[in-house]
Amino acid sequence: MNQEAISQSTLPEADKLILDYIAGGRKDRGWRLFIDTYQERLYNLCFRMLGNYDDAIDALQETYVQIDRSIGSFRGQSTLYTWSYRVAVHVILGFRKKRSALQEKHTGQELPDISRPQDDPDLMCEEKYRKYLLNQALQKLPDHQRIPLVMHDLDGFSFAEIAENTGSTEGAVKVRVFRARKLLEKILRQGEPVPGFENVGRFDGELVKQLMS
Predict the structure, then answer these.
(1) Cα distances (angstroms) measured from residue 184 to each of 136, 190, 206
(2) CB atoms within 10 A of CB 140
(3) Domains of the chain
(4) Which pTM was predicted?
(5) 151-160 tens-digit pLDDT
(6) Whole-angstrom Cα distance, residue 206 to residue 200?
(7) Which of 19, 42, 45 is nearest to 30 (CA)?
């Protein structure tokens, strides 16, 4: 049995079925199963990284385009989700770079605000608002810290997997995650202002770990 066959045999059953559909000329069916299986997690990644609903949807759609173009090169060295996650991160970084270029040309008022769950914070449950503030705070982390933090603490990737996916070392990833946690907690404890919620008050950073569990 060749190496590719060995790798394919260890894939989750959903991955095998998706790939079988695509290889067998039933691409639409394969895509439907892929979306049913992975869309929610990929969207959550896009939203956590970009903090804006419209950008997250655009990034998700672009991720699908990139996956569609390169699915033929998938050889099963990782799960289909891990491979797709890597594609999504590449797309997201492109979106963030493009947004940074726009911010150099325009004022913050001319750019869309971070998406809010509701217009009236008094109508929101406390946990939902805190999670919203966590997403807001994540946007303040530099990319080299945000990506490993989200991958490890929110999406459950091991340090070794993150190192492999980001072209880094396991030791460097551990350091970045540790520093990202400290910086995120500092941001939350300082009560950074959130557009549209200036009068709500300060966020208690004691619940950072609970929110990220």
Answers:
(1) 10, 10, 12
(2) 14
(3) 1-115 (1.10.1740.10), 117-213 (1.10.10.10)
(4) 0.70
(5) 888 888 899 9
(6) 17
(7) 19
